[in-house]
Specification:
alpha/beta; TIM Barrel; globular; 457 residues; 2 domains; Urease, subunit C, domain 1; eight-stranded mixed β-sheet
């Protein structure tokens, strides 16, 4: 019996050793591949003879874009090319600003099921305001390359789970470290606002912890929701009080030093209305509850998800709350909803005058489909120029980085995409991508797999 066990053990060890060696060989073979996220090369570039879609202004049918020191330094039809600049022939090509996916979990979750060590998107507990997605982003995620080669150059990546999930970060999809990638390390606080019933939506396509619980009697569900909102208000009041104590102590060191509370300290700029708070909600009644909360507490609010946001358009406009719509690819919720219910959502928001952007709401693997989300919205009532703005200029403005990103303008960060057609059309090919002024290799796990298998018979 013992000899059989020893044989089995030896066999298992040999199998494990073979697997381990195979993994080492695989990693070694891919050490120069997409998983390492090559950061491209810098320099001075001039994209010449191209159609320039500035987004913020008129289209230039035949012009030049100059990129220098990571910035766009010249745009126009009569621009001279600097001495020593590398010319990129744009004849027959179009230049766009890089797209922005404004509600994702990119870099925080590699393999959502079966590989827990690759997932760092949620913390335990109800108040994790001090948790920063910036510190958890994996710069070497294979999702980075797969996403950026399709023209998406920037994302907001945010945590999930609990009542107060943590702080999202705005990152460029290039860099070897979080510091190299970050545009705004702590960009927005994510709050899974209490709801009347459980519901989906949000970054990663499944909400931020499913506040609301199982289906209940409606009146009981409303009572529980209201109780949870009151608890949230108490947390906010504590953060406001702590902020005042910290300010007072900074002016007068004879006062008692405030007790350390990292979660409440992290909330201070948000409860003061200095930085935005993201609320993932879908239903009209929950959206209106968020609007009331934001108004009462004098906050900067952003709705993520927003299935029925168009129904609360007047209230959203009055409260100056923007919507990041993440439902283009979702199925209609009710059996009697029309098939294009979500395809037409952005056009309804635009017609109602609500500030909005379009996002995939994905955890990472499907962020590459962002242009097709906007393209579908453009096919179902959203004007073509608005569809493009919904994934470029509008998300930049909503996230507070409109002075840096979202359009082809002098002085802005050189996040630039060159294509052979309409950027929102699935038939279009991306020819060049620049992020922070660096020309990025158009390689990814997908291109490597294609190259490996395309000639096999």
């Amino acid at each position: 019996m013992r000899s059989v066990s020893n044989c089995n053990m030896a066999h298992r060890l040999s199998v494990l050793a073979a697997i381990f060696l195979g993994l080492i060989t695989s990693v070694s073979a891919q050490s120069d591949g997409a998983t390492q996220n090559k950061t491209g090369r810098g320099g001075t570039f001039a994209i010449v003879n191209a159609k320039i879609v500035t987004v913020s202004g008129a289209v230039i049918d035949n012009g030049t874009v100059v990129i220098q020191n990571g910035k766009i330094t010249a745009v126009g039809a009569g621009v001279s090319v600097p001495s020593g600049a590398e010319r990129v022939d744009g004849k027959g090509l179009s230049v766009y600003p890089g797209m922005i996916d404004s509600a994702t979990g990119l870099g925080l979750a590699e393999i959502g099921q079966g590989a827990n060590a690759t997932v760092d998107i949620a913390e335990t507990g109800n108040n994790n305001a001090n948790a920063k997605a910036y510190l958890g982003v994996n710069p070497h995620s294979s999702h980075v390359n797969v996403t950026r080669v399709n023209g998406i150059t920037t994302v907001m990546s945010a945590p999930t789970g609990g009542l107060i999930a943590g702080q999202g970060t705005i990152i460029n999809l290039n860099g070897s470290t979080q510091a190299e990638m970050a545009i705004v390390p702590a960009a927005a606080l994510v709050i899974n606002f209490p709801r009347v019933a459980a519901g989906g939506g949000g970054f990663g396509g499944g909400g931020f912890g499913g506040f609301g619980g199982p289906q209940l009697d409606f009146n009981e569900a409303v009572r529980r929701r209201d109780t949870q909102i009151e608890e949230l208000k108490k947390i906010f009041a504590s953060a406001v009080s702590l902020g005042r104590s910290i300010d007072a102590y900074a002016k007068d060191k004879t006062l008692p030093a405030p007790a350390t509370n990292l979660a409440l300290e992290a909330m201070i700029p948000y409860v003061r209305g200095e930085k935005p708070i993201v609320f993932p909600v879908e239903r009209e009644r929950d959206i209106k509850a968020v609007i009331k909360f934001v108004t009462d507490m004098k906050l900067k609010g952003i709705i993520v998800g927003g299935q029925e946001a168009w129904k609360a358009a007047d209230d959203l406009k009055k409260a100056n709350i923007s919507v990041i719509f993440t439902n283009i690819y979702n199925l209609p919720v009710r059996d009697d909803d029309p098939y294009d219910y979500f395809f037409a959502g952005p056009s309804k928001l635009q017609a109602a005058g609500v500030k909005f952007a379009i996002s995939t709401g994905d955890a990472g693997a499907e962020n590459r489909d962002l242009p097709y989300h906007a393209g579908l919205a453009g096919a179902y009532g959203l004007p073509k120029d608005e569809a493009l703005k919904a994934v470029t200029l509008y998300p930049a403005q909503i996230l507070g980085v409109g002075d840096q990103l979202g359009s082809i303008e002098v002085g802005k960060m050189a996040n630039v995409v060159v294509t052979d057609g309409d950027m929102l059309d699935p038939r279009t090919n991306v020819k060049y991508v620049f992020i922070g002024g660096r020309m990025i290799p158009l390689t990814s796990r997908h291109t490597e797999l294609f190259d490996s298998f395309k000639d096999r018979k």
